[in-house]
Amino acid sequence: MDKRKLTRSLLVVFIVLGCFYSGFNGFARQFHGSMTFSMGFPQGEFKGNIDNNTALGLDLAFGVQLGKSPFMIGIDLGIMDYGSDKRYETLYNAPEYQFEVEHDYNILQGLVFLRYQVVKTGPVRPYIDALAGINYLWTDTSLGDDDENEQITLTVDYDDFAFSYGVGGGMLVKLGKKKKRGVEFFIDMRARYIFGGKAEYLAEGSIIVENQEVTYLSYESRSDLLTLQIGFGLNFN
């Protein structure tokens, strides 16, 4: 992993977040949190390299409304798995004892968002998001005991990241409200297109083991991703 590239990417994200926060500090009156199920659809060359797999995962978001304005700022963290494969190995001095070796291919999106709330009240509240952050792609390998079905160890084989930015839109559909506590409950639905920079990554079939030698067949491309998300959200003071 190129630490200088990571530092530059994170610096851009924190500068953007800091500018928004400092400009509206002291005016925040309402908070929003959500947890959604995510489906990610790789785009372009990324799609072809991972054999058109769909990524599945979870997303957590937290935002702060900027006073009485229609804007909200926040952070969003999503983790998705875009593939896995496994094989079975035996110890050279104990061939009767078998281990399961599993590789998981993952992507994490850490994003800052600026949300324009088209409608602030009512049963249906559409919104538009502008986002910036990083895509972090990594492959981990777990070694498990096939007989006991237990994970013995976990290691990260390959990882890289890329600066990302994008746009999205969604809506909150109100389910109910607790008047005494000022908490509103919603179904949260959204779609996003994230333009991810170039990254090196592995995919299903990229790890080849022959005669105890491991070969990594990596890919390099942009990491663009279209995501569809649905879950639950709440607003509170």
Question: What is the topology?
Answer:
Blueprint: H1 3-24, E1 31-42, H2 44-49, E2 55-65, E3 71-91, E4 94-117, E5 124-145, E6 150-178, E7 183-196, E8 198-201, E9 207-210, E10 213-216, E11 219-222, E12 225-236
Provide a short characterization of the protein structure.
With 237 residues, the chain is mainly β.
Radius of gyration: 21 Å
What overall form do the CA principal axes indicate? elongated
- Beta-strand residue percentage: over 45%
Order of helices and strands: HEHEEEEEEEEEEE
How many strands in all?
12
The major β-sheet equals:
8 strands, antiparallel, barrel
Summed up, the helix count is 2
Indicate the low-confidence ranges by residue numbers. none
Structural class by SSE content: mainly beta
Widest sheet, order of strands:
1-2-3-4-5-6-7-12
Instruction: Write down the overall mean pLDDT.
Output: 85
Helix content: 10-25%
Report how far apart the termini are. Answer: 41 Å
Tags for this model:
mainly beta; two-stranded antiparallel ribbon; 8-stranded antiparallel barrel; 237 residues; elongated; 2 helices
Describe the structure.
The protein has 237 residues and is mainly beta. It contains two helices and twelve strands. The chain has helices spanning 3-24, 44-49, and strands at 31-42, 55-65, 71-91, 94-117, 124-145, 150-178, 183-196, 198-201, 207-210, 213-216, 219-222, 225-236. The protein has an eight-stranded antiparallel barrel. The longest helix has 22 residues, at 3-24. The radius of gyration is 21 Å and the shape is elongated. The chain starts with a helix and ends with a strand.
